[in-house]
Amino acid sequence: MADKAIKRVLTVAGSDSSGGAGLQADLKTFQEYGTFGLTAITSIVTMDPDQGWNHAVYPVNTYQVEQQLKTVLSGSSLDAMKTGMLGSIEIIELLSETIDKHAIPNIVIDPVMVCKGENEVLQPENGAAIRKLLVPRATVVTPNLFEAGQLAGMRSISTLKDMKEAARIIYELGAKHVVIKGGKSVEGDQAMDLLFDGSEFTLFKETKLETSYNHGAGCTFAAAITAGLAKGLTVIDAVARAKAFVTEGIKNGFAFNSFVGPVWHGAYNKAEQRLNS
């Protein structure tokens, strides 16, 4: 493969030591898409089995994130960038400035606000900063139902009608496209994700899967969209392929410990079958 053909994709996100979500999920997805993943770590997330699987988030300071970005951007130009968990308002400000300064294309903002299995918003002030500084710079913003509610100022979202209302509000914040990750949380028997481009809604549906092995599904979905855009897919095609990619990952998820089970990122390309053949 010629060097110029390798698409370079950056994730600015938290590290999930369990390997299912965060930048680990992003890198696995980028690899499966045939792109080269780069990282800037914003935080380290742990789960404590001795404390009821309580999550702890250890932020990386802004200077260290800035130095990581400096390293990443010292090479060839990026083809796409994704954000995940961000540790502080200062980091969010740094990213907005970096996007503008380097004219980074194909920006996917995944506005992570909670950890799997947790209900408390991680630093509410960060959500407000994402809304103000990153959503307007997004090629695609990919909130789940809870995050969409936070961005749109809606109390709760549980139906397709609610999703459409939230998508319109978030679009007005400046994002070029809004993808609301309804997944299995939407009422009914379909796992639904909704794309809005400012004029038309496109619905992506799959039958709901009865499994709890879906850790990292949201991160993986957003990362797949990012890699698809880097490879030249249109937004609608990138979302469609990402939906298929993450659905296969969920179908083939497995238990990591007694608390979570991750999606299997190699499922779409049948990585384990190739290795065992």
Keywords summarizing the entry:
single chain, 6-stranded mixed β-sheet, alpha/beta, 9 helices, 277 residues, 3-stranded antiparallel β-sheet, 9 strands
Tally the beta strands. Answer: 9
Overall mean pLDDT? 91
Strand order of the largest sheet: 3-2-1-4-5-6
Structural class: alpha/beta
Taken from the alpha-carbon principal axes, the silhouette is globular
Order of helices and strands: EHEEHEHEHEHHEEEHHH
Unreliable sequence segments: none
What count of helical segments does DSSP give?
9
Head-to-tail CA distance between termini: 24 Å
- Beta-strand residue percentage: 15-25%
Main beta sheet: 6 strands, mixed
Radius of gyration from the alpha-carbon trace, in angstroms: 17 Å
Measured as a percent range, the helix fraction is 25-40%
Structural overview:
- The protein is α/β, with parallel strands linked by helices.
- It has 9 helices and 9 strands.
- The strands form 2 sheets. A 6-stranded mixed β-sheet has the order 3-2-1-4-5-6. Strands 7-8-9 form a 3-stranded antiparallel β-sheet.
- It starts with 7 loop residues before the first strand and ends with a helix.
- The mean pLDDT is 91.
Summarize the structure.
The protein is an alpha/beta fold. It has 9 helices and 9 strands.
